[in-house]
Amino acid sequence: xxxxxxxxxxxxxxxxxxxxxxxxxxxxxxxxxxxxxxxxxxxxxxxxxxxxxxxxxxxxxxxxxxxxxxxxxxxxxxxxxxxxxxxxxxxxxxxxxxxxxxxxxxxxxxxxxxxxxxxxxxxxxxxxxxxxxxxxxxxxxxxxxxxxxxxxxxxxxxxxxxxxxxxxxxxxxxxxxxxxxxxxxxxxxxxxxxxxxxxxxxxxxxxxxxxxxxxxxxxxxxxxxxxxxxxxxxxxxxxxxxxxxxxxxxxxxxxxxxxxxxxxxxxxxxxxxxxxxxxxxxxxxxxxxxxxxxxxxxxxxxxxxxxxxxxxxxxxxxxxxxxxxxxxxxxxxxxxxxxxxxxxxxxxxxxxx
Length: 353
What we know:
The protein has 353 residues and is an alpha/beta fold.
């Protein structure tokens, strides 16, 4: 869980700047998501505000990279007009999402780099809403709202909306509208190129690594580091910038819920070690003391009213908190014993001129 701390609605107070050019980075690692990857690229190509380019970064899977190279043959996409170019790249760093994103940043040419999950599709005005946020030169990052698409066709009765971050989606407790936040959420986010020049790229060793334990937190660590490097920087979430994220059936089960919440605790321990517990857990304290207790009360009320899943949702919230707390405790001990520390990964200047 990467819970942003929100302020009141953010309103532009400066004159509009020239609309920036966007590079969209999509990181992929498995052929099992082939149709999802194609759908993600298609949604970028269909944007009302065209992207300069789409970069597909393949994480140490040569068969997938070769297949994507054939699908988006070099040179053909340029003929289809603005926003159609697709570039397929190999992850130039160690295995994992963070290094893949850094590879995309280094190769990109746009003034703003946007990130889209490989199993998500963006609504037509996704980039247009991002661009509106950058009218204020103080804004260095803009994120959006991620909506779950359940493989079963409906949300499991027991699954609390307060924990939608478990499946990579926007969760209950985040404020509506366009608001200033501590951090954006990685699968639906954008950053000015200068943000990476100021703070470095995503730290490797924190986030996901293919099919291994579902860690997270790399975007939280980066955003906190960015705010320290640029104290006046503004980070926003605009809930009009919507993507739809597919949730496969295995992730609808409680076993995944428990594993993911435990892994989030491990991740938070790493983030706290990197940027300090005060900033690393600032938003999580509000989430744990206000949002989650209200969710338990809501679930128990629904149970009393005989509404489906009420007791299950209340129980899942308690179980999720305990699992995350256990992961944080274990992760903190491991970090102290190993002396592991994370430093910002450098990224190249890319092709931006």
